[in-house]
Write a structure and sequence with these properties.
Helix 3 runs antiparallel to helix 4, helix 6 (about 115-125) packs antiparallel against helix 7 and helix 6 (about 115-125) crosses helix 8. The protein is about 65% helix and about 0% strand. It starts with a strand and ends in a 7-residue tail after the last helix. It is built from eight helices and two strands. The protein has a two-stranded parallel ribbon with strand order 1-2. It has one domain (about 20-180).
Length: about 190
């Protein structure tokens, strides 16, 4: 099966061009460091650790641990599968000025769609809807910020990040049906 070519929209190109022209090495290094917070290896490792710790907790804590682990595994696999179906050039491969301003090269050149980091962040943001209010707001802010780092380092077009984030929300909501996470116990 041949991959489906995905073409970035005009607004994607405009945003990438603005990033390339207005960034600097210090900003790019900070964005590169922050983007690790949405990396699948770190998130799955954290989910495994939480799952192990949750085994000694209440029923709700165990359900949360199972849900976060299952969601992390699914959102770890899904973007890789989709990148075999869709083919899109990363914006960092299409800029010379951006590299002069500190933009690094990210991943495989044609794996822009969708953003796997954003899939993870969308799932975490969705799961946070069941968190107490201060943690929910903090998590939502962090997931959006971490997703935006993928645009800042030109690893993805803005539409890749939006589609990935929404996809993560949908995945998390589907996994809830299996794990029972978020159901009221009363």
């Amino acid at each position: 099966m041949r991959p489906v070519n995905v073409t970035p929209a005009a607004y994607d190109r405009e945003i990438a061009s603005a990033v390339a022209q207005h960034t600097n090495p210090a900003f790019e290094q900070a964005a590169q460091a922050l983007t690790w917070g949405a990396d699948e290896h770190i998130l799955i490792t954290a989910a495994v650790a939480f799952w192990l710790l949750s085994r000694r907790g209440s029923e709700q804590t165990r359900i949360t641990g199972t849900h976060l682990l299952a969601t992390s595994v699914v959102t770890g696999i899904l973007p890789h599968a989709l990148k075999h179906i869709f083919n899109q050039r990363r914006p960092d491969r299409l800029t010379a000025i951006g590299h002069l301003h500190g933009i690094p090269l990210s991943g495989h050149p044609n794996d822009a769609f969708p953003s796997g980091h954003a899939v993870h962040m969308g799932a975490l943001a969705s799961a946070a809807s069941a968190f107490p209010k201060p943690y929910r707001k903090l998590t939502w802010s962090a997931t959006i910020g971490l997703s935006l780092t993928r645009i800042a380092v030109l690893a993805h077009w803005s539409s890749d990040v939006v589609v990935g984030f929404v996809g993560g929300v949908l995945v998390e909501r589907l996994v809830r049906r299996w794990t029972g996470y978020g159901r009221s116990r009363g």
